[in-house]
Structures are given as C-alpha cells and as structure tokens.
Write a structure and sequence with these properties.
- This protein is mostly helical.
- The protein contains two helices and no strands.
- Helix 1 packs across helix 2.
- The longest helix is centred in the first third of the chain and has 11 residues.
C-alpha cells in the first residue's frame, strides 16, 4: 500500500514526490 500511494503521488504531484522521497 505504501509504494502504491507513493507512485500515485509522484505521478500526480512530481513536486510532492520529490519532497516525500528525502523525507522517508
């Protein structure tokens, strides 16, 4: 579930995905 949400967010919001990657 975690990887699925990250993929969806990265595709829908590339800016959010970048911020979420370093945070994790």
């Amino acid at each position: 579930m975690a990887p699925a949400k990250a993929s969806s967010t990265k595709k829908a919001d590339p800016k959010l995905g970048l911020q979420r990657l370093p945070r994790l």
